C-alpha cells in the first residue's frame, strides 16, 4: 500500500486502542472482565494498514469492539511484540488474537477480514464453547461429531495449525469404518481441507472414489480431488527454495501419480512436481525442459497453467547464469497468446523484467 499514511495517522476514529505496557493491558482486562483484542501488525504489512484505515474505523466494528474488548495494537517486531510472537505462534500478518486476563489464548485468526467478518470473529471469541480454546477443550473431552470437527478444523486453518489438522484428519477420519467414512459429512471435511487430507485422499478416497459418488455428486468429488492435488503439486514450486520442501514426500507423490494412469490430470501434477523438484535442486535446464513440456503437451487448464509458469520463471530469474535466464525469456515470449489470462499479463511483464535483470 504505497503512499498510505502511517497507522497512527489513520487511526483517528474507530476502535479505541488502549495505551501502556502489556502488563497494564492484562490488568485492565482483569478489572473490566473482558478479553484483550490484540491487533498484531508490522510496518511493512500492507493488509495491516488496510485493516487500520478501512476496517477498524468502520462505525459498527468500532462500536462492537469498544464495548466488548480491551483493544491493543502492537508492532510484533518491536519490544514485547517479539516475545509474544513466540508465545502465541504468530506466522503471518495481520494476525488477530483474543487473549484472557491470564494471558491465555482464547481465539486466533491470521489474515485480513472485512468489517462484518471481523464482528463475526469477535462474536465467536466471546462464546467459550465455540472459540479456539473452547474447541480444544471439547476435542480433548472426546467430542467427535462431524460438524464439530469441521468447525474446529476451520478455526485451526486460520491459526496455522497445519500439523494438528493433519493429525485430526488422519486419526479421526481415517479410523472410521466405511459406513461412517463414505458420507456427505466426511466429504465436506475432506473437501474443505484438501491439503491437510492429502494422505487420506491418496490412501482411501481416490482408490474408492466411486463410494463417494453414491452420496455426493460425482462432479463435486472429482473437482474436490483435483483442487487438492493441484494445490499440493504447486506447493512444491512455492516451497522449492524453503526448508518446507520435503524430498521424500516429493518422491512418494511422484510414484503415486506414475501408478495412477487413469487418474485425470495425473500428467499435470507430475509435471508440476518435477518443476518444483528441479528448482529445489537448482537444475535450471531441467526446469525449462519441464516448462516446455507443459506448454507443448497442453498440460494444465488455463486457470492454473499461467500461474505455474509464472511462479517457476520467477525462480529461474534468480539464476546467475544469464544464458539460462535468456532461455526463460525466450520460452515466455514463445507462449501462445491463449496461455496467459489477461489479468495475469502484468505479472508476466514483471517476470520478464526480472529475467532480464531489470528489476
Give the rounded overall mean pLDDT: 92
Q: Tell me the series of helices and strands, N- to C-terminal.
A: HHEHHEHEEHHHHHHHHHHHHHHH
Estimate percent helicity.
Answer: 55-70%
Supply the helix-strand structural class.
alpha+beta
Strand order of the largest sheet: 2-1-3-4
- Fraction of residues in β-strands: 5-15%
Low-pLDDT parts are 1-12
- Please state the overall shape, judged from the principal axes of the Cα atoms: globular
Radius of gyration: 24 Å
Termini separation comes to 19 Å
Describe the largest sheet: 4 strands, mixed
Quantity of strands, as a count: 4
Continuous helix count: 20
Question: Can you describe this structure?
Answer:
The protein has 359 residues and is α+β, with helices and mostly antiparallel strands. Among the domains are: 22-114, Glutaredoxin (3-Layer(aba) Sandwich); 223-358, no CATH class. The protein is 60% helix and 7% strand. The chain has 20 helices and four strands. It has helices spanning 7-10, 22-32, 46-55, 59-68, 80-88, 115-125, 132-140, 146-157, 162-173, 178-181, 184-192, 198-205, 209-213, 218-238, 247-258, 266-280, 284-296, 302-316, 322-333, 345-356, and strands at 35-41, 69-75, 95-99, 105-110. It has a four-stranded mixed sheet, sandwiched between helices. β3 (95-99) and β4 (105-110) form a beta hairpin. It is globular, with a radius of gyration of 24 Å. Pfam families: Thioredoxin_2.
